[in-house]
Write a structure and sequence with these properties.
By secondary structure, the protein is an all-alpha fold. The protein contains ten helices and no strands. The N terminus is likely disordered.
């Protein structure tokens, strides 16, 4: 039975943070203080057990906590996949590798295999995560650029019902119909409104002809502006 300590556990988040740091510059010494500061870990023991020991098992750090030549290849994009392949072949048994001939790892099958070699369910999950990461050989940034979900979503075109309503002078509730000029009137003349008046005049039978004439003369003057009817 294989010793479970031969199967390292390293979180994906730590994996990519460490690789980005190595891409910037290879650290002179991969000490617990360096790791604790870089990953904001609580103690030297946590840095050693969770990071330094797995990195040694992967062949990226030597026994003196110095980055190896493999670590240099690991940080180079063009060599990343071949480095991961080399780590898989060096760390995991042929039996496990043969179960997954390509980059795809069936987690159920992998979990059955790891648990059959004496590890618990949660430990198996952690081991599978790193094994899957190595088998994929894909760089995280490239995965994001090629992922459809990472692309900027296109702005949805507004449908006919979603389009903004634009008020025109014809459709605006505040619009007022312009006055219609009389076709017979000269341009620019302010036409008077047409006025219709029904007028009833009651003249006393006792009125003289002169009085009746005066009444009609006053009507003509005030209603029609005629001085001499």
């Amino acid at each position: 039975m294989a010793d479970q300590a031969t199967y390292p556990m390293l979180s994906e988040k730590s994996w990519w943070i460490l690789r980005e740091r190595f891409k910037a510059s290879i650290p002179t010494s991969f000490s617990s203080t360096f790791v604790k500061s870089l990953l904001s870990l609580s103690s030297d023991a946590s840095a050693n057990n969770n990071i330094i020991v797995p990195m040694k098992r992967l062949g990226l750090i030597d026994d003196d906590n110095k980055p190896t030549a493999l670590a240099n290849d690991w940080r180079i994009d063009d060599k990343y996949r071949s480095t991961c392949d080399a780590i898989v072949k060096a760390v995991y048994p042929t039996e496990l590798i043969d179960l997954f001939p390509d980059a795809t790892v069936d987690r159920t099958v992998a979990k059955n295999w790891f648990m059959s070699h004496g590890v618990g369910s949660k430990t198996a999950d952690s081991m599978i995560s790193l094994f899957t990461l190595l088998k994929s050989g894909e760089i995280k940034e490239k995965q994001n650029r090629s992922s459809p979900t990472a692309q900027k979503p296109k702005t949805k075109a507004k449908t006919r019902t979603e389009k903004e309503t634009i008020l025109t002078p014809e459709s605006s509730p505040l619009s007022v119909d312009p006055p219609v000029e009389d076709a017979k009137s000269p341009v620019g003349v302010n036409n008077r409104p047409n006025l219709h008046i029904d007028l009833q005049i009651h003249i006393s039978p006792e009125s003289t002809p002169e009085q009746i004439e005066t009444i009609f003369a006053c009507m003509a003057k005030h209603l029609y502006g005629v001085d001499n009817p």
